[in-house]
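> Could you send the Histidine--tRNA ligase prediction when you get a chance?

Sure thing. Input:
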Amino acid sequence: MTDIADDTPETAPARPEARSPRGFADRRGSDLIAERRIVARVSEVYERWGFEPLETGAFEYADALGKFLPDADRPNAGVFALQDDDDQWMALRYDLTAPLARFAAQTWETLPKPFRRYAFGPVWRNEKPGPGRFREFTQCDADTVGSDRPEADAEIIAMAVEGLAAAGLDDGQAVVRVSNRKLFDGLFEAGGITDAVQKLTALRAVDKFDRLGWEGTAALLGEGRLDDSGDYTKGARLPAALIGTIEAFLASVSTPDLTRAETLDAVARAGGLGATGEAALAELAAIDAALGAMKVGQDRVRFDPTIVRGLEYYTGAVFEAELLLDTVDDKGRAVRFGSIGGGGRYDDLVARFTGERTPATGFSFGVSRLASALRAAGAGGSADVRGPVVVIVFGQDDMAAYLDAVAELRRAGIAAELYLGRAGMKAQMKYADRRGSPAVVMLGGDELANGQVTIKDLDVGRALAAGVADNEAWKAARPGQVTVVRSELVQTLRSIIDASSII
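Output:
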């Protein structure tokens, strides 16, 4: 006798739990379309500014990525890595800049110089996820490699401003803050600080100035700070005189609404910058002049010497795009998104491969982060994404007529689908509504017999239904429904879609 498999719960194989890893989001149509729109619009800006597209692979050799984590002292932390069959370690790219540096070093002799490229695609970071912060997300970068002119920085900044507007941010909804890493290099040199770890600790303290204020920052510049949770953070232990100089430096730019030139004057008056810091002021002045020539307003780009970014990465000008919109989470609680992009000058990255310093500057949009921020601000989401026209199915016998109609719509450039489930009329209407369809097409027996088609404008129906208390009256009115001759199908639908505020 053949044994029959025992499928009792005690012997059945355990089923895996359906779950997503933290920081890896499943995104449906509306979210994906929102991100793709941002990428398409920003990429159009990059191309108009003369940048060519470049695509590199998802994996890079770990030694090529190198000390790619700007805020970490560990050379191989924060990535997803694996060992190839030749025992070489490779990792998913952490950003789009390190692959660019490798590509530039590998192909430098064949490239036009300066080399101007833009790129977009997913990047991966093995870090703790949070609101709007993922382990897999999309970036959209533009970089100029091979120019040391401050005008190259200014052009990247101005292009970032235009890119933010193209992505959907209006006046007053974002600002690009600009500084120069060499300002603090000058302060440290003048103050006699040479230890790299001490400098790094001090810069991290300054980076918290907007959140902690001067008192908390001063503690971190000194012996250290005990926060409200009881955690103690070791300080930079700078000399008191240098802490005082940094206080004056930060106070010099605390007045709101200073112009870029006024900010530079205030920093210069604070003193203590040394020769390196004075050179940084000159570079910023040149950037300001170039921004002025390109008509970039003071409200769009501001100088803010507290911006330090990429503590072991950037070598000169640094920029950070800050979202100014009020945002809330799914429960209506206020969420601060802060930075939605940034960049700066990184003149040492290509030199890791070539041994020769190669000037470079660039900016990166956090596309996934920006899309999340727009949704949190009520400026994006499924309501902004139009679904296809749905052709209703009444029965199998008339399937050829339904297929003919949906094919005609597609040939005319109208997104359309034929309902291919097995539900009835009511469920099909609900399906079209959930898809965000602008309209449904109905080819019932009467319509087919009379050479007609009935089209229901779902946007009008939704609007009227929201304001009608008497359900029977709403049904009798048949809001937004029209019957036309079959030849007017495309024309009627196009007029409905063109009149919609949703694209």
